[in-house]
C-alpha cells in the first residue's frame, strides 16, 4: 500500500482532501509540529474569534453578556451545541465549561454515590495522573482510603489495557468506573461501547476521559450509553493553552442534581432572580459551576468552523492513514536503531498519535527539537508523535523520519542529556 519514496509522500499529499487546511494555522513552512496531542497549533480563525470577543468587551462593556455576535451569557451552551457532533452527544447533553480536572470532580461528585457494598471506584494503572489524583480526592471526601477503594486495572505489557481485564474487575463492590478513551502514552483506543455495556449489565455507572481523542476520533457517547464524559479542547480541538474544557452528561441523568452546584448551573430564566434556592438547568448546563472564562472559550468559536467544514470522519480517515504511513516508514528506515512501536497497530485500537519507545527517548526528543521538529516525551522511554490531520502533511512525516534517521546514524542525540526538561 505504501512506498518508501519521497515522491510517494508528495503523491499522498496531492490526493489529500484536507491538504489546504495547513494554511489555516500558524506554522512556518520548515517546522514539523508533531505535538498536537499536547497542544494544538493556533488556527487563524481562533485568533480572529478571540479578537472579536475582546472587541465586544471593548465596545459593549457589560452589554456583551447579551449583545453582539457571540453573547457571553449563552456562549457555553452555544459552543456545546457545536461540540456535540464531535462526541456523538445531543446538543443539550454537551457543555463547554470548566477544566478537565474540575469537570471530573463535578461529575464524580455527582455520579459516585457509594451505598452498601458498592463503595469502590474502578480505573486503570496507565491513566493520566490528574484523573487519579481527583479520584483519590473524591474517595477521601467520602471517608474512604484510596489504597483500598480505588481499583486500578493492571496492564499486561506496560503499554495497553485489556478490556476483558477491566470487565473482570467490574465486581459487586464497584460503584463507578472512570477510564480514558485513549491512553495518553501508547495511544491505545479503548472500546467504549463494549466497556459501557459491560458496566451497565452489572449495574455500574461509567464515565470516560476524552482528552486524547476528542477532535481526532469520532465518538458516539449518547448512542453508546455512556453516563458521562469530560475532555479538554487545547489538544486536537486547538482552543489554546488552558482553553475551557467540555463535558457530556447522558440525558438519562438530567434529573440528577450536580454534586457541585454553582450560579451558572441555574436555569437561565431563573438565574438572575438571585434566590438562595438552586433551580438547576434541565440539561447538561446544570453541571456548570462558575462564570464562563470568556476569553479562554472564545478561540473555540473559530476553531470549530474548521471542524464543521472538514468533518470529523474525514479527519479520522486521514489520521489513520497518516499514523499507518508513519509506522511504515519507521519500520522501513529505523529498524536498525532500537526503536519499538508501542501503540496498537489495528485501526480500531489506535488513537491519533504513534508511540515510539527507545532507551534514549529524552535525548532523541531534544535532538529533534534542534532540527525544527516538535515531538513529545513521556517518561520513561516514550516519544509521542502526532500527525494531526489539519496541519501535518505526509511529506512532513517523510521528512521527520529521515531527519530522525540522520540523528540516529550520526549519533547526534548523544550530545544531549537523556532526561526530561521541566516540561516534557
Automatic annotation (TrEMBL):
GO molecular function: kynureninase activity
Keyword Aminoacyl-tRNA synthetase: no
This enzyme's EC code(s): 3.7.1.3
Residues the record lists as N6-(pyridoxal phosphate)lysine modifications: 235
Residue sites binding pyridoxal 5'-phosphate per the record: 100-101, 128-131, 209, 212, 234, 263, 291
Cofactors that this protein relies on: pyridoxal 5'-phosphate
Pathway: Cofactor biosynthesis; NAD(+) biosynthesis; quinolinate from L-kynurenine: step 2/3; Amino-acid degradation; L-kynurenine degradation; L-alanine and anthranilate from L-kynurenine: step 1/1
Top EC category: hydrolase
Reactions catalysed according to its record: 3-hydroxy-L-kynurenine + H2O = 3-hydroxyanthranilate + L-alanine + H(+); L-kynurenine + H2O = anthranilate + L-alanine + H(+)
Highest taxon listed in the record's lineage: Bacteria
Keyword Hydrolase: yes
Keywords noted in UniProt: Hydrolase, Pyridine nucleotide biosynthesis, Pyridoxal phosphate
PANTHER family in UniProt: KYNURENINASE
Described purpose of this protein according to its UniProt entry: Catalyzes the cleavage of L-kynurenine (L-Kyn) and L-3-hydroxykynurenine (L-3OHKyn) into anthranilic acid (AA) and 3-hydroxyanthranilic acid (3-OHAA), respectively.
Record note on quaternary structure: Homodimer.
Family affiliation: Belongs to the kynureninase family.
Protein's recorded name: Kynureninase
Protein source organism: Alkalibacillus flavidus
Gene: kynU
Amino acid at each position: 500500500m505504501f512506498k518508501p519514496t519521497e515522491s510517494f509522500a508528495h503523491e499522498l499529499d496531492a490526493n489529500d482532501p484536507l491538504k489546504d487546511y495547513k494554511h489555516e494555522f500558524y506554522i512556518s513552512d520548515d517546522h514539523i509540529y508533531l505535538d498536537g496531542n499536547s497542544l494544538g497549533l493556533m488556527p487563524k480563525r481562533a485568533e480572529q474569534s478571540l479578537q472579536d470577543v475582546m472587541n465586544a468587551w471593548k465596545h459593549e462593556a457589560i452589554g456583551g453578556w447579551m449583545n453582539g455576535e457571540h453573547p457571553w451569557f449563552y456562549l457555553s451552551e452555544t459552543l456545546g451545541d457545536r461540540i456535540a457532533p464531535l462526541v456523538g452527544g445531543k446538543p443539550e447533553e454537551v457543555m463547554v465549561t470548566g477544566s478537565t480536572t474540575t469537570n471530573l470532580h463535578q461529575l464524580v461528585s455527582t455520579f459516585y454515590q457509594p451505598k452498601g457494598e458498592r463503595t469502590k471506584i474502578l480505573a486503570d494503572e496507565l491513566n493520566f495522573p490528574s484523573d487519579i489524583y481527583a479520584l483519590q480526592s473524591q474517595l477521601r471526601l467520602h471517608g474512604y482510603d484510596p489504597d483500598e477503594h480505588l481499583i486500578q486495572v493492571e496492564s499486561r505489557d506496560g503499554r495497553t489495557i485489556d478490556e476483558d481485564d477491566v470487565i473482570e474487575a467490574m465486581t459487586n463492590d464497584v460503584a463507578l468506573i472512570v477510564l480514558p478513551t485513549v491512553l495518553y502514552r501508547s495511544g491505545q483506543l479503548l472500546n467504549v461501547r463494549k466497556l459501557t455495556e459491560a458496566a451497565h449489565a452489572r449495574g455500574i455507572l461509567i464515565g470516560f476521559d476524552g482528552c486524547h481523542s476528542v477532535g481526532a476520533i469520532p465518538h458516539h457517547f449518547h448512542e453508546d450509553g455512556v453516563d458521562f464524559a469530560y475532555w479538554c479542547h487545547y489538544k486536537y480541538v486547538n482552543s489554546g493553552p488552558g482553553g475551557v474544557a467540555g463535558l457530556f452528561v447522558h440525558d438519562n441523568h438530567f434529573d440528577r442534581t450536580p454534586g457541585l452546584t454553582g450560579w451558572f448551573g441555574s436555569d437561565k430564566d431563573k438565574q438572575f432572580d438571585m434566590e438562595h434556592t438552586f433551580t438547576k438547568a434541565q440539561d447538561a448546563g446544570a453541571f456548570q459551576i462558575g462564570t464562563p472564562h470568556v476569553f479562554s472559550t472564545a478561540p473555540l468559536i473559530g476553531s470549530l468552523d474548521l471542524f464543521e467544514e472538514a468533518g470529523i470522519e474525514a479527519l479520522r480517515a486521514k489520521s489513520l492513514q497518516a499514523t499507518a504511513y508513519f509506522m511504515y516508514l519507521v519500520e522501513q528506515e529505523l529498524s536498525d536503531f532500537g526503536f519499538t512501536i508501542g501503540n496498537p497497530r489495528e485501526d480500531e485500537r489506535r488513537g491519533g498519535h504513534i508511540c515510539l519507545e527507545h532507551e534514549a527517548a529524552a535525548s532523541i526528543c531534544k535532538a529533534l527539537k534542534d532540527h525544527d521538529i516538535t515531538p513529545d516525551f513521556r517518561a520513561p522511554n516514550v516519544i509521542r508523535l502526532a500527525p494531526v490531520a489539519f496541519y501535518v502533511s505526509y511529506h512532513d512525516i517523510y521528512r521527520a523520519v529521515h531527519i530522525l534517521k540522520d540523528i540516529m546514524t550520526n549519533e547526534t542525540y548523544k550530545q544531549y542529556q537523556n532526561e526530561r526538561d521541566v516540561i516534557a
